[in-house]
Amino acid sequence: MYDLFSLCGDDIARMSDRAAVETMAVAREAVCRAEAAQVHAIARLCRIRGHTRWVADEVALELSVSRQAAAGLVGAAEVLTTRLPKLLTAMENGKIDLRTAGKVCEVTAALSDEQAREVDERIAGRLAGKDSEKVRRIARDAVCAVDPDGYAERAKKHRKDRRVELVHAEEGMASLWAYLPAEIASAIYARVDGIARRLKTKDEERTLDQLRADVLADLVLGKHEGLPGVLAQVYVHVPIDAALGITDTGCELSGHGPIPGEIAREIMADPNSVWRKVTCDPVSGAVLDVGRTRYRPPAALDELVRVRDRECRAPGCRRPAQRSDVDHHRDYRRGKNGHTSQANLICLCRAHHRLKDADEWGFHLDEATGELTVTTPTGRCHTTRPEPILKPSVGNPDESTKDDPRDDTQEPPY
Q1: pLDDT higher for 307 or 197?
Q2: Separation of alpha carbons 402 and 125, rounded Å
Q3: If you placed Cys at 321, which of 64, 347, 409, 413 could pair as Cys (CB 3.0 to 4.6 Å)?
Q4: What are the two backbone dihedrals, phi and then psi, of residue 343, each rounded to the nearest 5 degrees?
Q5: Nearest to 98 by CA among 151, 21, 35
Q6: Residues near 305 by Cβ (< 8 Å), separated by ≥ 6?
Q7: Predicted confidence (pLDDT) at residue 40 exceeds the cutoff of 90
Q8: DSSP string spanning 262-321?
């Protein structure tokens, strides 16, 4: 291994691919530790200066950042040193960088100090090796468990803040930005994406991004009425006890995360709903029923695999299963004795589906556990399992709201 602080151009030029990857990983750990030291230093400066508002100005000058960015660093330092000490320890151990830690700070901002520290306890040891969005989801699940009533109340309040904004950019472009309830935004995107993919024929020169932008514009301006058979399909996972109004926990919008039980029941009761209800057993977390009252469903097995996986199974990928390929892990047509069964099918987005067949890349699915191991060209392995739709409740019903202390790669199999 090279000494990070004495690397020169010649060292880099002589590196093998394995050495380059290992150096990259070690460098990231060093960055995490350095950022932890910076957090401690900023927090110490705040204490010395009596936490005055001028600390951000001093930090901005020393770090050559804007005052707004400096204020964000000061805020994160205060939170990490007082409310999330275990998360800061993960940074000190080279496991989490400041950007990722900032996601947890954002998710826990509305909690009391005591609740934030409880979330910190729940997620400790579960964040290493996770991308920032996965960390946000883990933290958000913990927030829902620690403060379910507060989460539901804040969700209802935020729905009143929905709005549309126009942001002008350069060279004749602009952004049209909408802040919407997650289930509505998900349904809009699903419909726009479905139409764009139908239009993406071999003779179409526009990219999918360009097609989605054009489809959205045409739909909003009334130039396009959609295509036959292209419908928005977004899954809402609801425990049977939440569906009956007995509890308000455990509900989840596919691709987004937890939603309050009251909102989930409103979606279920809407006769014009475009969202598909997935009813789950609150004890085992197993799927009991996939609502079929409005649309003709796809092949049962195809749908089961998409509901089970929810997202592309490749590590770190968040593309929803409804916009991914259902892939035979072992392909019968290529002489690999593949079979069309739940155990041999996984969801992969188109990019990772192609990567699976790339030279020197390995994808191995353990059909007994559902664990997918992706091996890179340098031999490094990364694993995932499909997360259960619900965290199973075992024994005492009160335990159902607690986080599973195991790493999420050890969740129950299919």
Answers
A1: 197
A2: 15
A3: 347
A4: -70, -25
A5: 35
A6: 321, 326, 342, 345, 346, 347
A7: yes
A8: HHHHHHHH-TT--EEEEEE-TTT--EEEE--SSS----HHHHHHHHHH-B--STT---BG
Which is it for the CA torsion 9, 11, 13, 18, positive or negative? negative
**CA 201: distance to chain centroid?**
30
* Contact present, 413 and 369 (Cβ < 8 Å): yes
Cα 292–chain centre separation: 27
* Structure confidence by residue, pLDDT tens digits, 273-330: 555 556 555 555 555 555 543 333 345 667 778 777 888 899 888 888 878 888 887 7
**C-alpha 252 chain-centroid distance:** 13
Q: What CA–CA distances, in Å, run from 54 to 103, 187, 263?
A: 25, 45, 43
Can you read off the two tokens belonging to residue 175? 């952004």
Q: Are strands 234-239 and 275-280 parallel, antiparallel or unpaired?
A: parallel
What is the arrangement of strands in the sheet containing 381-384, beginning at the earlier edge strand? 362-365, 372-375, 381-384
**Cβ atoms of residues 331 and 338 within 8 Å:** yes
The distance from CA 137 to its chain's CA centroid, rounded to whole angstroms, is 6
**DSSP letter assigned to residue 341:** S
- Strands (E) across 134-274 are located at 163-168, 174-179, 234-239, 252-253, 257-258
Beta strand segments in 78-190, E: 163-168, 174-179
Residues 6+ apart with CB under 8 A from 273: 267, 294
User: H or E stretch including 327?
Assistant: strand 325-328
